[in-house]
Design a protein that fits this description.
single chain; mainly alpha; Cytochrome p450-Terp, domain 2; 3-stranded antiparallel sheet; 12 helices; 3 strands; 57% helix; citrate synthase activity
């Protein structure tokens, strides 16, 4: 049975349904707020929160979110995503292409540790079943996690930093926020117990890194784990953009991961002749 014109219009109207934005001629509403009221009155972290969560956060919540976002913006041109953005520019891509290429590399291994750490901290919290965090429960969950996922614990240890200075600062900020009542501090306590448990097992300190402490912060603020990855990508996009722009100003053409003077290792067969 064919649809009436009115039914077709109704179907078209409901094809996309959103609670985020209402756009009409001369009108833009974000979560019910006129855009002109938001402009100049809310910060970018507050806008991120509003878009994702539906409400404007308290100032103290926004400040803690902002600290986490600031801390993860960049980690140098040796970070694969940053290197990709710079190489892409030298291959002729514009800024948007360089950023897209770099962001596409932020997946499970490079970029996913924050979300994975959030899931681990939540698993430990569930195992605690409302009781105070304890090293015994943390060790039991870690043993199960390693059995299922391998020995790498996301959010802990760093190939460059014996102690990640970003994590040290953010832990202090969380504890200050906890003292003010902004957050409960529970996930941060769990994360520090993971650090302790890893040290006891390895016989050497395995410090929390930027992914570990931002995972705790995002959980403290009530963000679900999948958004942890998205928030990291928002943060690191600032570094990606900065490096892409800098490379575009420096110039350079078809720069690979190593200068031509540094050779790669060939491990294939010795030179041979094709005999037919």
């Amino acid at each position: 049975m064919s649809k009436t014109p009115g039914e077709i219009v109704d179907e078209a109207k409901t094809w996309w349904t959103t609670e985020i934005v209402d756009i009409q001629p001369g009108k833009i509403g974000i979560r019910g707020y006129p855009i002109q009221q938001l402009i100049g009155n809310v910060s970018f972290p507050e806008m991120i929160w509003l878009m994702l969560r539906g409400e404007v956060p308290r100032a103290d919540q926004a400040k803690l979110l902002e600290a986490a976002l600031v801390a993860a913006v960049d980690h140098g041109p040796h970070a694969p995503s940053i290197a990709i953005s710079r190489m892409a520019v030298t291959c002729g891509l514009p800024i948007n292409g360089a950023m897209a290429s770099a962001i596409n590399a932020l997946d499970d291994i490079h970029g996913g540790a924050g979300q994975q750490c959030m899931e681990l901290l939540q698993e430990i919290d569930q195992a605690l079943a409302g009781s105070e965090p304890s090293i015994e429960v943390v060790e039991a969950v870690l043993a199960s996690y390693v059995e299922r996922n391998g020995k790498i614990i996301p959010g802990f240890g760093h190939r460059w930093h014996g102690t990640d200075p970003r994590a040290v600062r953010l832990v202090a900020i969380v504890r200050e926020a906890q003292a003010r009542g902004t957050v409960a501090g529970r996930y941060t306590t769990i994360a520090t117990l993971v650090e302790e448990a890893l040290g006891r097992k390895k016989g050497t300190r395995i410090p929390m890194n930027i992914d570990g402490i931002t995972a705790a912060i995002y959980l403290e603020l009530g963000f679900p784990a999948p958004l942890g990855r998205g928030l990291f990508i928002l943060s690191r996009s600032v570094g990606i953009l900065s490096h892409a722009w800098e490379q575009s100003q420096q110039g350079g053409r078809i720069k690979g991961p190593m200068p031509p003077s540094v050779s790669y290792t060939y491990a294939g067969p010795a030179a041979r002749d094709l005999k037919r």
